[in-house]
């Protein structure tokens, strides 16, 4: 996030590189953990939390750069940390809430959309850095398209949050008593 919001070509490339490395290592970590059967309760909790921090910080930077609207980002971040609270409650009770299939789709969608937006920002920064106008196909109303993509992501994200709340409402109910 720090590198992205700096109005500097090189720093934005660093932010893209760090994001790609983080996303790829997240995928590799999950793959190898399942392949070799080294899935732990700690990993089931920390891996989704790391994803939330990665995606949330990028989305907040996009708001700071006026690339996306704040409302869908607030919905995404609100859902992410609400479900983290549910996971903490479950962990306190000795229950591990594994990510559902839809939650994995949600994470893939979030990482893909953030990666695309980040790549576009870096591409535009590249043309500006070298004082080139860039190809005509890059001069579209990116904010509208990015907002649509982020809203789609927000809907899927909120839906998965509702799914978790419905499935684990019995835990929430015990706290509310």
Question: Brief description of this entry?
Answer:
The chain has 177 residues and is mainly alpha-helical. Helices cover 80% and strands 0% of the residues.
Topology of this protein?
Blueprint: H1 2-5, H2 9-35, H3 41-64, H4 70-92, H5 101-129, H6 142-167, H7 169-176
Helix pairs in contact: 2-5, 3-4, 3-5, 4-6, 5-6
What is the number of E strands?
0
Listing every helix as H and every strand as E from the N terminus to the C terminus, the arrangement reads HHHHHHH
Q: Quaternary arrangement of the chains shown?
A: single chain
Distance from first to last alpha carbon: 40 Å
Alpha carbon gyration radius: 18 Å
Count every helix, treating DSSP H or I runs of 4 or more residues as helices. Answer: 7
Uncertain residue segments: none
Please report which band the strand proportion falls in: under 5%, 5-15%, 15-25%, 25-35%, 35-45% or over 45%.
Answer: under 5%
User: What is the typical, i.e. mean, pLDDT?
Assistant: 88
What's the helical proportion of residues?
over 70%
Number of domains: 1
Characterize the biggest β-sheet.
Answer: none
Gross geometry? elongated
What is the SS-derived class? mainly alpha
């Amino acid at each position: 996030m720090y590198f992205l919001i700096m109005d500097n070509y090189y720093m934005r490339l660093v932010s893209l590189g760090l994001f790609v490395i983080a996303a790829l290592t997240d995928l590799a970590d999950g793959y190898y953990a399942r392949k070799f059967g080294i899935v732990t309760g700690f990993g089931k909790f920390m891996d989704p939390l790391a994803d939330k921090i990665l995606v949330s910080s990028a989305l907040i930077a996009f708001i700071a750069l006026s690339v996306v609207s704040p409302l869908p980002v607030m919905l995404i971040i609100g859902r992410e940390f609400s479900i983290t609270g549910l996971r903490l409650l479950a962990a306190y009770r000795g229950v591990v809430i594994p990510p559902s299939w839809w939650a994995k789709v949600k994470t893939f969608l979030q990482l893909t959309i953030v990666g695309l937006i980040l790549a576009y920002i870096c591409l535009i920064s590249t043309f500006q850095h070298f004082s080139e106008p860039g190809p005509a196909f890059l001069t579209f109303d990116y904010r509208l398209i990015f907002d649509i993509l982020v809203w789609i992501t927000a809907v899927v994200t909120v839906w998965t949050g509702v799914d978790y709340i419905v499935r684990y409402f019995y835990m929430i109910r015990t706290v509310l008593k």
